[in-house]
Protein 1
Amino acid sequence: MAAPHSPESATLFASPLEPLAQKVADTFRRHDVRLTLGGEPTLVPNDPEGTEWNFVAVGPTKLRYAYALAEQITERFLPGAITVFSPGKQYPGEVNPRWVVNLLANRDGSPIAQRATAPRKASVSQRHARKIFQTLLADLAADLGFTADAWTDAIDPQDPKSLVAVLPLDHDGQKWFTERWKLPARRKKLLLLNAEGPAGLRLPLDQLPPEALRRALTVELRDGTQRVFLPPLLQPAFRDLLDRLSTLLARHGVGKIFFEGYLPSDEANVWTRVGLTADPGVLEINVPPCETWQDYHRWLVILEETGRTVEMRSWKQNPQGNDAGTGGGNHLLFGGPSLDENPFFTRPLWVASLLRYFQAHPSLAYLFTGVYVGASSQAPRPDESARDLYDLDMGYEHLATLPPGEDHRYIIGETLRHLHTDITGNTHRSEISFDKFWNVGGPPGSTSGLIEFRAIESLPRAEWMSLVALLWQTIAAHTLDRPSPRSLVAHGSRLHDRFFLPTPRWEDLRAVLGELRAAGFSFPEDGFRAIWRWRFPLLLAANLQDGATLDVRRGCEGWPLLSETPSEGGTTSRFVDTSIERLEFAASAEFAERHRIFVNGRELRLASLDDADQSPHHERICGLRYRRTALYPSLHPGIKPHLPLELTVTSADAAKIVARYRLEENQQQFRPVDAVESLHPIDLHRPAVKSDPALLAYDLRLE
């Protein structure tokens, strides 16, 4: 689906990456592959306050932001679209179901309701609104072939003054039909359920006889606005009803209207659908599947531009005051234009090669996601789950031996669905998830032929997110062109040690970019380097008088899953221990030769990387794990936090103190301190300890 254009699009959507994107598209075309790219970027307000912008899905302001964003997208980039509020999923432990604000538009750019004109937004008096309401009901009934008394009045116990009318309605493929619902004895009006949500979701369907028609069109006048709840229908009937409604609403000059209800699947393949979804802590935007990278890039720019207008953005500040992602992800989805054209079903070797490539390069799992990674995170690698490496290798190898050209969707799905899970067996929480690929008998959407890459977080610039998406597409093109025969890499302890640190992660990404460059796909490194610097902000950049340099950055951490904790209401919750933080100390070769470093009086010894000759400034690095907080619940509650951290730089023989720096609890960076302010005298006889001598990271919790 092509992203919408606008008069400002010529310069707004331009990107220097288009030649590379075209080369990737040419590779897919040469292999007769049509690969779609979808995404789920997330936005938060500029000032995200309240639980709904931290960990709760639904809250008091999120729907207002969704409507404001939808209005901006429609006005600037998607003319002719309509907005439809739809019920979402009901998750365990959540009182109310989630929702999605859909933007529905015709792919050819024509108005979604052909005969409708744009409704006037001017407000009308309550008396006039009630008159319009009654006239609209009569005209709509007549237009559908019914009498005016086909409507049943309803009472909303939450707002008895509102006007609600219900029309049982369905379509048999030829014409519309209705029936009169039998109300309980001595009741003249239908009583809606006393729950939250639109009137159309609160119909007392359980009180109807088993044979009664259970689909109904509901119209209500609430808060001075006309709200129309559309029943579940097939696409032809839905389009006919929407066209009738839009024409009547425009004819009567209704002020502000809201469409609500259920959207059918796009069987005719004529719609563009964008979903603005309530998700924990964020507003998630479901971008339509795009057949080109350029279309995907346009959507990200549209969201950036319209988000800015409604004071929303794709990043926020973490508790330490540093810029970070929204916390809600920015997942990418690979698929096909249709199930019949899905490129993965008949190319199991390609699927296996793609998975092997990602397993070999931990930077792809850790560099573009949040600080929380590892086995209990939202996107664990398959070799971080409870699976042995040989099980993964066995599954991938079996797929690689299947004959190409035949439809292998079932065996691909069944093989990978059980291998790509988190430690609890959840198929959705995986770095590369196959829960939407081909899971017969699963929930809706489980047989969509989609591969979801979840280890990607929203970034503060659309161009950065587009760059990451193009990298993923390029890797897909590269593994299609050159299937990977490599065995899986046994990273061992290096996975959660070396690759949790920023510098080794950058070196691994440089290896990826070098391999792609050798294959003819040349990326500029500066964009990725900018992302790397943003993801791992400097806590200290020490430039000493002798030209030696020392940089300190935050790394990633694999926070452990804790035991079940009783919650209010008799349920249980699973927490992770977020008390541990990891730092990287990266020094130039000159620094390592002339200086030593101590943290809280204990020495950290710098080590060379295997590929130090290729790394910038010939860096020497080490890591440090320390306890930042002691919040309940957490592991080892008897160990006190290590803040403030005091970093002491000495001469090579430790006879002279060159500099001291301190990181306090509420500070974003280390700050210089005088020697007389020292809290931790250095101890040459008590160096910091590692859990294994082969690791790069020390742990202040170890004595």
Protein 2
Amino acid sequence: MRHALATLCVFAFVTQAADPPHTLRGYSQQTSATELQWEQKFKAIPEEDRLRENMRRLSARPHHVGSPYDKDNAEWIAAQLKSFGLDAQIETFDTLFPTPKERALEVLEPVKYVAKLEEPALAIDPTSNQKSEQLPTYNAYSIDGDVTAPVVYVNYGSPDDYKELERMGVSVQGAIALARYGQTWRGIKPKVAAEHGAVGCLIYSDPHEDGYFNGDVYPKGPMRPPFGVQRGSVMDMPLYPGDPATPGIGATPGAKKLPLNEITTLTKIPVMPISYEDAEPMLKNLDGELVPAAWRGSLPMPYHVGPGPAKAHLHLKFNWDRKPLYDVIAKIPGSKYPDEWIIRGNHHDAWVNGAGDPVSGASPEMEEARALGELLKQGWKPDRTIIYCFWDGEEPGLLGSTEWAETHAAELTEHAVAYINSDGNGRGFFRAGGSHSLEDFVNGIMKDVEDPETKMTAWKRVRLADMARATPAQRAEFKSRPDLRISALGSGSDYTVFTDHLGVASLNIGFGGEDAGGGQYHSIYDDFYWYTHFEDTDFAYGRALAQTAGIMMMRLADAQILPFKFTNFADTIHTYIAEIKELDNGQRARTKEINSQVEEGVFDAMQNPKKKMVPPSKEPVPPYLNFAPLDNAADELTRASDAYEKAFLAAGSNAPAAVNAKLIKSERMLLNPAGLPNRPWFENLIYAPGFYTGYGVKTIPGVRESIEQKRWTEADVQIAHAAAALQKEADLLDEAAKQIGGH
């Protein structure tokens, strides 16, 4: 699920390249010097040639969930970790993972066309011919179905796109919705289509998103060819990720499993991904209005919305089997605080060969583990326990990480300090998102990592790029705010269970922006040949990722006082509240405008006589919400974070290590065991994926989505819940400040 990284903000920090030795946050001057010496030794160990050979081995054959090479890879990773001197084992879980039994798509009218539904092997690409081991093109967790219906083009298939269809007088009731990949996560497309009465959904890759519009297509270039298809899960993960049959509990042998007809995260209609080669015969044979300019892809034809006359027959049938997951878990025991855990993860499963997604991230993680093993031989010992995880089953629905974390939830709640995630890695700028209590920490790390291409520090390269495209307001913030912001996390990779369900401070990191992006994402061509010709071809950025993540692990593991900083978090919360108030005011203004136009009969003149569009009726004007509890709690958080920071700086290295027990719980304060409305698995009241975004984050989600969906009574309740969470955080910081001040 490499695309999750694309939602992350980039950031930087202003300083000079030749800084004098500095005291690290949470360290004394003496322990800082020792830590930096060990980090310098660490940075010298990862090797590009080893990264290349890791990728060659791990991506040599298809290794989806349940495949022989998936297990083989897990066993090989575990053996490698043991050879590095780490205590490694494989934890196995049992999960629902459907695979195709029957697939068919035909255009019946006004032309006859049988879809190929296949990506051909290419002579130049040596692993593209492994047909017997490749999963066919499909969307996991689509239901079985056999439907024949007219086709309607729905653009990206977002809720806003359906509002536009309604304005055009077009319905998908009883139709097959044809959506293009992009903007919304793929699982949202059939979800919204079903809510509007569609009987099936097809998702195609338009060349505008990742094909010839962006460059030469494969094999001449890195972009998706006409026959390329993006596989992927359409599980309704905004409800809950992981094994669909065991929500909230680990999929262990004795776990109670829901029957298939009670699972809520399967699609409501059959859905399948197709190439634009297979989509063209439908798009060419749609009538109706020309689509709005923003809906037009890059195929050489006028885009019409339909419905019909194109009519299609879609037939899908799946094997609803349970398959094993193989999570590889390796530990380095802490020498001082063994019950405080720093956790690192990247998945190892793929839809096919998966060189870019996920091996470009898994290979650097292996080099990190090897480098730490080398330091152990030289006498280094982490103060806290370090855990390296290589997850299985990420692609179908974050299966391996979710099942492991749900199984070990009580231990993680007690011991987990932080989780550092990566997924696919490319070439270009450093990217990160995560818990804002770690924002200052990440800014500091990036001072000490070199960008391989420019030889400047990674933070400086990104800052220069950010400054070049900044607005005047953003430029002013660069001068006034020492740390640039990182984005919040929604979902889309293995941090989800840690951030959204367990309240563990988390980061998602990687490099990218100067590579092919998603050109071969989830296709048979995401393999060693493609990656080594068009992505991080010399593995220099793979080495940089290993260095960056490894230093993060070491610095968190060895800090006397955990380097969380809460003033950035408090500042960011105020920006989120301001956004929510603006959203609320916008809803009120739009409602008043529409009601005024309805009264004046404006919509009568705007009706489309062909479609007999029904003008909107008046809506109740939204009530004024009481944001005072949220404002008061945010102010309390600001005061408490300032007090904690003052106590922390005053105490310096004399601060008591016992305060770490409170800092570990800081992210837990943001949880509500009742969860968000209609999705109790998501307990974090500050960060969550949107119900209609899938991956994209909604901050203070209970309040924000209640306003978006005009559920005003619920909004008041959610304001109170979010305020209570922020107040709990403020109270904990007050306790931590007193503990430091009274040592």
Protein 3
Amino acid sequence: MTSSAHKPSFTTDRSRLIKDRLAQFGISAGGVMVLVALLLIFFYLLYVVQPIFESVRVEKRAEVELTDATKYVGIGVEEQTEVAYLLSKDGVVDFYQVSGNTVGQHLEQVQTTLDGQVTSFAQSAPHVGLYAYGLDNGQVQLVKPSFLVTFPNNKRLLTPTVRYPLDAQQLVVDEQSKAIAKFTFAHTDEKTSVVALTADKRVLFSAFFKEENMFTGEVEWLSERVELEVDGRVDELLISPDSSRTFVRSANQIYIFDTRDVTEIEQIQVLAANEENANLTAMNLLAGANSLMLANDNGEVSQWFEVNTSEGRLFTKIRAFEGTKKSTMSLHSEYYRRSFFTTTNQGDLGVFYTTSEATLWKGKISEGAIAKFAISPRANAAVVLADDKLMLIDIHNEHPEVTWSALWQEVWYEGYPEPDYVWQSTSASDDFESKFSLVPISFGTIKAAMYAMLFAVPIALAAAIYTAYFMSSELRRVVKPTVEIMEALPTVILGFLAGLWLAPLIEEHLPAIIAILLLLPLGILVAALAWTKLPENFRHSVPEGSHAILLIPVVLFIGWISFSMSEVLELWFFDGNVRKYLTNELGLTFDQRNSLVVGIAMGFAVIPTIFSIAEDAVFSVPKHLSNGSLALGATQWQTLVRVVLLTASPGIFSAVMMGLGRAVGETMIVLMATGNTPIMDWSIFQGMRTLAANIAVEMPESEVGSSHYRILFLAAFVLFLFTFIFNTVAEFVRQQLREKYSSM
């Protein structure tokens, strides 16, 4: 009889193989999708940010031939850049179509009402949009080219006209009726100021005040006049839109007068602003009228504004730009931004931005001299009078204020005593200049994360090590889930409690908080020392690994005694007022919502993350390693330090870096628990503004596509890089530690 040997056969259920394949594919696809999502976020941020670094472009759009361009003394263009207007020296205003299918069409000619012969011409600050004629009888007439918008047959129609801000009334600047040789003016609803050079070389400041009869409604203009003392010839006159400052250029000297009060006009400064071997050729005021721009015949254009000095607020040279050399330059300002333009008698145009110290564009736009130049209200186009032609040029200059130096270096802003890092994106004033330094909010992000980690890391790691290595398994099953469930607490709740409860508590009981920070570690050590002195029978009655419960009364007692003694401590050590002591004695500013509050609140949010990962890392150390160490005679502490912690170091480091990443990206706590002030100060008693909080606060109010909007996306990109760098470094170090201690 023969017998056959039966070999065992191992078969796998086909459905299980399919499930394994599907699981493998799903996990791989999920990982790939996460990477794709990160890349999409990265490139979308770049897509939104990229336009702020685009170069300026200047392109010619339209050209109109003129029969006699020399008769025009002023030009301008309406807001939509459809119609341009030219003001002649005999008071005629011509309107031309400069866009659409009828480019070059002469639309209208309006003769202004003038009671005398024109001897001079001036225009107001660009945003005011007024022009004025000086007459041979010592009077000035203000005019304003305007456009009536109608929609016949649902089609937009512009009807050119000329308005008179003073109801065609001419201002008597010189009571002696001498001709106005040169003048400048400023106009508001309540006041009009004129600075004029008369034919007999007098410089007059005249202020006209509007007064309305409350019974008849008739308007009367009251006037006051003062003669300004200027030595030498007068080459140029300027006045700020609010009439507070008047500038008179005499050769290479500029006389600056305070003209806020007509009855108390005073000369506040005389500038000798020309460079060596150079002469002043032009001056103009930037938008906002806080900065004076000066051009020299050596091609330099300099910016001056008032700075606090030992002699008071004086105009000081801040920065200089290189214009076009060996050319006579004229200066032109935008309506609202701190951009300015230079034009020359050789047809050159320069585009500059003062605060970022940027030369945005230089080039030739005409063969002959540029006689007149005017920027459009939206700064996206300009009209140029040159070569007996009226040209309209498009200017693509959306974000002139943004450069790498303006974002990351100190910038000297108007009115500031020195260069500084400043983030201040909005204001209620039209003259406000946005300040977009990312340094203060990046600093605030690092500061908030640092104080949170100082609070969280020692507590979380100590708790993780004790829970994993010393605590009994029964107690660990209670403690670990309890700490981990803290992570489910919404950060908005933590921020709410920190801002409305913790911050006032710390302010009122600051000595108690300081006492707790000092006494708590000392009290725990004293309690541990006292425990070792107790009888062994009593000490052995406490289950092994449950000793931490005995510290709860110690912690509560130290907290209670610290708060009970808060007023006494404040009286003993701080003369009864800790905030006054910090300010007067230590020179520290105390904000109620400060870094201490943020450190505690955000540390509380970060502790569960660090604790959970670190505890798992320590608990996962193979038992044979610690048992072998103990068997060789090492103590528990020696085993912990020399074996367990080294083996668990990759996981512990990952825990710390994960906590740091959480702290860097935290939004709601720092939003609600700090003053959100973008200051650069390491003081624990002052607040900060972080990248994440700044985005959350300002994104809803930013205009889509504006510089502010795109810089907020740049801030998000910087935050993205922060977390990416931290995670990359963490992974690199973790791999190094794993390779080093994997053989244990």
Protein 4
Amino acid sequence: MERGMVVAPQNDAAEVGARVFLAGGNAVDAAVATAFAQGVMDQMMCGIAGFGAGHVYLPKQGVHAVINFFAKAPLAVRPDMWRDLLEYETRDGFGFVLKGRVNDLGYQSVAVPGTVAGLHGMHKLYGRLPWAEVVLPAARIAEDGYRITPHVHTYWTTTENMGRVEVIERIRYTREYASLFFGADGQPHPPGTTVTNPDYGSSLRAIAADGPDVFYRGAMARRMTEDFAGHGGLLAQADLDRYEPEWTPPVWGSYRGLRVAANPPPGCGAMLLRMLHILEHFDLKAMGVNSPEYIRVVAEAMKRAQIVKDRDIGDPHFVDVKAESIFDREAARADAEAIRRGEVAHVPRAGGSKEGADTTHLCTFDSEGNAVTMTHTLGMQSGVITPGLGFMYNGAMAMFDPRPGRAQSLAPNKRRVSSLAPTILFKGDAPYLILGAPGGSNIPMGILQVILNVVDHGMSALEAVNVPRFSATGDAIDVAARIPVLTCEALAAMGYRTIRSVQPYICARVHAILVDGGRVTGGADPSSGGSVIAV
């Protein structure tokens, strides 16, 4: 690696970042350009009407910070507006199912977007190339066309059965969006089909020329707010006018002598640190990766951290949430002792549970030691696309708790809690492992396992993201198909219910860069067909 490395789930988006390095850009430029390209090529997962978090480390400039560009509830929201519509909380903890699905599909499901402001905020302070140079590659992809990948096709044709609106119904919701991905016969285009989206290209060209003002206060903003006003939406011009991303310091923990920097609430870096602080009390290497006892111990740590997340993590501007209390070492020690005694944690879910997410990630690292790990998302697709603009809006309102008086309850201008957890592990003062993942409520669980694979089991980045994963966001343990039935039977004998997927890869799609002894290597999660590109 002479200039930099990009790791991302989309091959062509990763190449956009690599070309930015070749043009003289730094890790921030590459990250921003890759993110805009992802929004075009994987617009069921992310886009300019989404939200996210970026973790930025620039040692020569003395910069180490997290930029939160999370979605916010519109000012028209009332805390009790959906209280009587609650049916249940999804089993995976990724949203609340309401009567009529009003929070999950359509104009009321859209929260205030943060992605354009967040990407511009990163670039304005720390980018090296002109703004237009990092935006226009995505515009050209939208106009010239890109191919539907097998991963994307599988994603939007797979039935989830979690109670949320199925992805394919979100894509069919508006004629403009359906026309991109369905043929005249009503069937979704097969993998390999080239999609062009000139409307999205025009929107990106406007942002390249005028920056975020056109999106939040200019002509594009007027078209958006007129569309929402005409369809009973919550989003209004006052919401766009006041939106600003927020820079914060990372929260810090440690694991086996490594310093761990993660994002603060309303993200879930603190939840990840809680799990690491619990598991530091166990000899995981001796247990063996994915042995029944290993899965039991790690799953119990996951459940206990999930309980704390659901109860305590909220927008610090609205609830008194002290990140350090979430990953307090004495509380983690108590959790570890309970796990050692064989105690089984119970994860509460509102209204019972129903058996059963739209995000992407990237990591960049350059020859100057600059690092960016960024996760950005739609939450779920709202199904809404304003005619002529070309992009899907987030469906982030589904994650707000319709029950008043809770950490994640509805409130005007409140930031949506998110499982995003872009993370950097340091060996001394130097970055060692740069990673993050898409995957809804499974994000911290997937990141956790890759950290364990590298630190406890000595794996490379590529090996670490390839090991089959499991997750316990509720009482059951979800396991990948590559975890044997024998292991599930052993867990059943311990009293655990396992749900074995038909998919070989589950529990987030982790992407990582490992910097070890001057050697830089990357690992792209194989389930998404992603790429590691070094130039």
